[in-house]
Structure formats: C-alpha cells, structure tokens
Amino acid sequence: MKGSAVHCENLTKTFGETTAVEDVSFDLKRGDILALVGPSGCGKTTLLRLIAGFEVPDNGAAYIGGKPVVNEKKFVPPEKRDVGIVFQNYALFPHLDVSENIAYGLSSKGSQREKRIGEMLTLIGLEDYGSKMPHELSGGEQQRVALARALAPDPEILLLDEPFSNLDADLRTRIRSEVRDILKRTKASVIFVTHDQDEALFMGDRVGVMNEGKVVQVDKPEDIFHYPIDPFVANFIGTADFIDGKINGQETVETEIGNLLYHGEHPSGKSVDVMVRPDFIDIEPMQNGVGEIVDRVFRGMHYLYKIRLPSGITVRTLKHHTEKYELGTNVTFKLASEHEVICFHKK
Questions:
Q1: CA 305 to CA 291: how far, in whole Å?
Q2: pTM to 2 decimals?
C-alpha cells in the first residue's frame, strides 16, 4: 500500500441478485494510469463509483493516498475523498464560462485562484478561451475543460469514465493522445474506464481486464496482450484463435499446423488449447499444405486471411496487401519470427 494512490481489497457490490463487483483487489501506484477495460455490464463503472464514494460496498475496503475511505467501520463521503472525476458527458455547467467551470472546485481565492485557472488553461492549450461558454466549444475542447476542472484542485486520484465516448473516431484518436500527454505532465494518478481495447492499450501504464464483476488480470499493456492469463483475456485484448495441442517436451507443443515453441511450463503430454494471433503465424502457398484459405478481407495495409485446418477449426493470419492469394489456395504454416505461443489447460 505504501506509495499507492489507490488500494482496493476484496471490494464487492451487489444489486439485488446481481453481483456487479466481486472480490476486486488491486493497487495503483502514484503517477500511473490504470485503464480498466471489459464488456458492457462487467462492473467497470460500478467499481469506479465505489472508489469515488457514490456507492457503498457490501464487503471490502478502499484506500486513497494511503488513507482508508471505506471499510467495515468507516465511510468517507465523496466530497472528502480528494477525487477528481470526468464523466462521459463532461457535465460542464452551461451557465458558467470556461474559467468559472475550471474554478468550481477550487478553495483558493483572489490571485491564487486566478493563477491556478491560468495554469489549467495553459495546460489544456485553451489560454484564450477563459470567457467562452461551454456551448461555444467543440466536443474536444469541452473534454479538455472538464479535465482541467477535475485536475485544478490537484486531487489524489483522477477517475475518468469513458470520457471519449461522445467524440467521433478521428477526434477521439487525437484527443486521447493530448489527454494522456496532459495527465503525464501533471503526474496524475488515474483510473481510466473504457470498453475499447485499443484505447486501453494506448492510455494505460497498466491495463486491468474485467469480466462478470471480477478483475481478471492487471498487467502492462504489452504483457496483457502477449501473455493473457486465460482465453477470455486473450479474446478481449486483440484477436485470438485456438487450436488443439499436446505438450511435446519442454519447448514445443504439437499441433496440426506443426510443432510450435510455447511460453511457460506445462507437463509433457498435457492436452492444451493453443492461442494463435493473426500476427503470430505466417502462411506460404503449398500444393499439399494442411490449410485452405476460405476467406480474405482487405484492410488497406494488409489482408486478413481465414484458413481452415483439417480438423475444421479456422485460424486467421495477416499478410501484406501485396500478397493476394485466392480462396481455395492450400498453405503451410510457420511461426512469424521467434514468437512463442501461449497454451491454456483444457477445462
């Protein structure tokens, strides 16, 4: 817990017979961004509301800045938790101008107050927008003002609940880059909720994947992509296919596309599900190849090919847009570079 911005222990919240958050524990270091990602209804927003104090957990405890804010004996109300929040709709006050919106949560007065407003306007790149009203701003500008208002009191923790969901795709990509830069410059400690896997991988120093109320895995973006803890994480973060395999000694797993190097430790002879991502395997046309191309999707820079194996299972692979193969072409497989596949024990 030392050095933590947020520490949660076994948080659980039910609504009637529905368990929204179940036995969730994690730790967020100061200055880090944790991106929480998962399907709709998995409990992301409820977990955020438990940390903010908008919901009371049935069990568990939470600490902000090392201080308990909720446990079996204590409940600190939201306004005393030193938490900044940016909602999906930004929730700017329509009757207040930009400067007044930013100043809303500040306790300082006079010149100190004006100095802080100026600092925030500079931080978000809207120095000349202080007197503008919210309706005069674009969606991206409103989003930055909401962020500045949340950051102005210098909170211990900043919670962002799908803050880019109302932006169109191009603006969303640009704004999230700007926001991450702002957050890093201010060394903010952030929990960022999204349902978009690409956004989670981009925004998070660490990524937490939620499913059915549980935090299944928390890891660095690269590790959660390359080393998912179970098939759900593998499928949710990126694109994954699964083929049957049998562990063949300490280094390879035997599959119908050949013997593949694998990561981790498994007993020899063990039957496993082998995860292959489209960029893990490569194909080459071969008359007696074990796979047959059954679908091809053009995606600009590359083609996504679907290949049917003798078992009837299909796997996908990426090829450069100059490598166009016809449907029905037989292919053989090899691992791209020195990738090691991930194996999961069969249930």
A1: 11
A2: 0.89
